[in-house]
Recover the amino acids of this structure.
């Protein structure tokens, strides 16, 4: 079993190894005495550019004798008429041979390295007889598809007789055309006889749209029967040598077609020969495109009937023969001039293997990796969208020098990565209309053009953030972005978009900055903070992730910046402050009047002679009962009114204390949400003495309150993960101290008022 496997492996291996990346013309035809130039292509590598190149002639038993090499060797047969030139910038070398002879016809190889072991390509060279008389036969040469003219002489006595031309086929001579109007069906509308003037003693046989089958021996005849006059002519048809194109798998090629059409307005086409004589249209200017080339082909018309066809993302099946030409219906026709091409696809490609299909979801993003020639790091990079028009077109959407198409602003950016041969294009805020084909281009080597197909599939974006946000000038602003668990180990970032890219903002660990980024892995939120906000901060911001050098998903947010209205604050703060000011103003007025005149609310006229209830000897009773009742009522009123006033003043003072307590309470504000943190309750009444706040609970932790416009923090006490910078705050007297002072003032005032009230009855 093992031997069988080894035998199969050895049988397969030579077949695989015979696939050579060297490419050149398979068949070359030239006329004797002329010259030939043969171009051989090799893969792009430093080794191939500097290794030995050679041209050798194949002999018996597979031996190939070197005739000329890049090391300076030239055989005696080639001395003075041949040379080999290497062109490393285009990865080609050219063999030129002059003064061709019949002896130069044969089979050759062009290759790299050593003849017997190097890479090579087989070339067949055919040397045809030149035009003229050879052994009594006139030799004519015509190019395929062109017009051939054969001159037939005759004697004067035959000038009025019938003229005809036939073609020899084995032992027969089949009539082609005669002067009576008879034409063979194979030559209809192509062959004719022209008799310009009988005095010239010759007529011309003209054949248009020469085909390969038209080559052979023709017999010109004047008259009929045994007395007829005959002459022989031999026609050679030269096949046009195809233009050679060398492309790398996944690379790009350009057909520069110049068929020489006499009608520049005729429809242009490029077709691929599949089998025999058939040539299937790949693309034409009438809008026809082959399905296999959808999204990766462009046709660009030029002047005088010429045009270019670009094909990207080359596949193995793209190799083969092509023809480009012009015709009214955009289709190839026999007999019409075309320009042949042969495309070779090198499977030992240097093109990086990059996904040609990317998928995204509505509202999400895609990051497209584009290749370029690493030797052209300074080249201008583009990204365009392929449009299915008549010829196909691709208009740039973004370029590396800062151009971004208007409808893609805030959505599209191009990241250059010098040195590694790739750049990245990121498109976010995806819509179903974004699905289609896109091309990566540079203004340098066209072989590195690349196409990618964008597909929109079902799903939701991984990153979550508000698409629009509003901030006010001078305030602090935080913009959060939530990422899923699958991005936990990825690098997270925020960047600010502009036409030249998206500049990454510094993280909080990189030091203080007006704008910085903080990432909380536990809450899976990456936040951007502006401290403070300025008008220049308005614009697009992107939240994104990276996996090493590779860009991942992004989410775009547009930040609007508004001017802050003078005096505008948090609604709850404004209402609370205005209410507290009114209450405080009224209480201060009452306190002032009480201190200046403790009996302000007691009418001296209502305080009559009131006896001490415990000592009846000091009273003077009236004789009548009515007088006694009147005196008792007077004393009751005089006693209750001051007490009521004292209670009223106490209620006002309590209101003052509560108002001041609310004003000085510690507050936490998170965006529009506010939580009040009150002081610890006092344990007993003695805590209200003026003893330097000794009654405060030892575990109570106070927070210095800032001014009304101070930035809010995430918690009441400072934390290590806070993303905001606290501003210096004006120190104030603590709420406990103010409560002690107010309560002391209240006790003093009530004692004074009680003493005055008691003095009144005593005097009475």
């Amino acid at each position: 079993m093992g031997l069988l496997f080894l035998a199969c492996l050895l049988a397969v291996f030579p077949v695989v190894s015979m696939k050579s990346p060297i490419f050149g013309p398979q068949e070359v035809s030239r006329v004797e005495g002329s010259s030939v130039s043969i171009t051989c292509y090799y893969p792009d590598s430093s080794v191939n550019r500097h290794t030995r190149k050679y041209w050798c002639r194949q002999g018996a038993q597979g031996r190939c004798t070197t005739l000329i090499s890049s090391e300076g060797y030239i055989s005696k047969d080639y001395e003075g008429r041949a040379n080999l030139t290497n062109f490393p910038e285009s990865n080609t070398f050219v063999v030129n041979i002059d003064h061709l002879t019949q002896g130069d016809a044969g089979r050759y190889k062009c290759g790299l390295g050593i003849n017997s072991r190097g890479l090579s390509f087989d070339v067949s060279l055919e040397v045809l007889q030149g035009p003229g008389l050879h052994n009594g036969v006139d030799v004519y040469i015509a190019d395929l598809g062109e017009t051939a003219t054969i001159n037939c002489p005759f004697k004067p006595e035959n000038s009025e007789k019938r003229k005809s031309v036939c073609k020899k086929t084995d032992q027969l001579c089949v009539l082609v055309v005669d002067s009576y109007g008879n034409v063979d069906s194979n030559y209809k509308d192509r062959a004719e006889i022209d008799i310009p003037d009988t005095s010239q003693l010759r007529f011309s046989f003209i054949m248009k749209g020469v085909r390969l089958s038209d080559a052979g021996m023709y017999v010109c005849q004047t008259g009929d029967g045994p007395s007829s006059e005959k002459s022989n002519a031999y026609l050679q048809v030269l096949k046009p040598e195809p233009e050679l194109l060398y492309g790398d798998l996944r690379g790009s090629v350009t057909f520069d077609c110049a068929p020489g059409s006499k009608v520049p307005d005729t429809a242009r086409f490029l077709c691929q020969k599949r089998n025999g004589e058939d040539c299937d249209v790949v693309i034409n200017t009438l809008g026809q495109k082959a399905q296999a080339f959808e999204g990766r082909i462009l046709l660009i018309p030029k002047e005088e009937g010429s045009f270019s066809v670009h094909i990207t993302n080359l596949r193995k099946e793209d190799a083969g023969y092509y023809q480009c030409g012009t015709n009214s219906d955009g289709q190839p026709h026999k007999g019409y001039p075309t320009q042949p091409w042969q495309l070779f696809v090198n499977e030992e490609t240097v093109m990086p293997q990059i996904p040609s299909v990317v998928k995204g979801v509505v509202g999400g993003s895609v990051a497209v990796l584009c290749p370029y020639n690493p030797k052209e790091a300074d080249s201008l990079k583009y990204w365009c969208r392929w449009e299915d028009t008549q010829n196909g077109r691709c208009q740039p959407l973004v370029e590396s020098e800062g151009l971004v198409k208007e409808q893609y602003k805030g959505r599209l950016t191009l990241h250059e990565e010098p040195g590694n041969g790739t750049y990245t294009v990121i498109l976010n805020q995806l819509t179903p209309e974004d699905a289609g084909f896109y091309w990566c281009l540079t203004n340098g080597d066209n072989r590195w053009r690349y196409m990618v197909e964008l597909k929109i599939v079902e799903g939701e974006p991984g990153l979550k953030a508000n698409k629009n946000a509003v901030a006010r000038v001078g305030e602090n602003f935080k913009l959060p972005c939530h990422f899923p668990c699958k991005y936990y180990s990825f690098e997270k970032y925020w960047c600010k978009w502009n036409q030249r890219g998206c500049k990454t903002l510094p993280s909080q660990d990189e030091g203080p900055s007006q704008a910085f980024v903080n990432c909380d892995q536990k809450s899976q939120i990456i936040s951007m903070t502006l401290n403070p906000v300025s008008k220049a901060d308005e614009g697009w911001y992107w939240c994104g992730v990276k996996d090493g050098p590779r860009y991942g998903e992004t989410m775009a947010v547009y930040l609007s910046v508004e001017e802050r209205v003078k005096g505008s604050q948090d609604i709850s703060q404004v209402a609370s402050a205005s209410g507290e000011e009114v209450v405080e103003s009224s209480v201060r007025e009452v306190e002032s009047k009480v201190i200046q005149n403790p009996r302000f609310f007691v009418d001296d006229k209502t305080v009559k002679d009131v006896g001490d209830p415990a000592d009846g000897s000091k009273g003077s009773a009236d004789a009548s009962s009515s007088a006694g009742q009147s005196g008792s009522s007077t004393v009751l009123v005089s006693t209750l009114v001051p007490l009521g006033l004292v209670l009223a003043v106490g209620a006002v003072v309590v209101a003052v204390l509560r108002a001041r307590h609310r004003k000085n309470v510690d507050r936490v504000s998170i965006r529009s949400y506010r939580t009040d943190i009150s002081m610890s309750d006092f344990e007993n009444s003695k805590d209200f003495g003026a003893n330097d706040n000794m009654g405060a609970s030892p575990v109570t932790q106070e927070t210095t309150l800032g001014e009304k416009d101070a930035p809010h923090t995430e918690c009441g006490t400072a934390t290590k993960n806070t993303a905001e910078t606290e501003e210096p705050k004006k120190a104030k007297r603590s709420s406990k101290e103010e409560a002690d002072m107010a309560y002391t003032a209240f006790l003093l005032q009530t004692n004074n008022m009680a003493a005055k009230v008691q003095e009144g009855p005593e005097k009475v």
Notes: The longest strand covers residues 550-562. Helices lie at 2-17, 46-50, 571-596, 625-663, 735-763. Residues 243 and 325 are 14 Å apart (CA to CA).
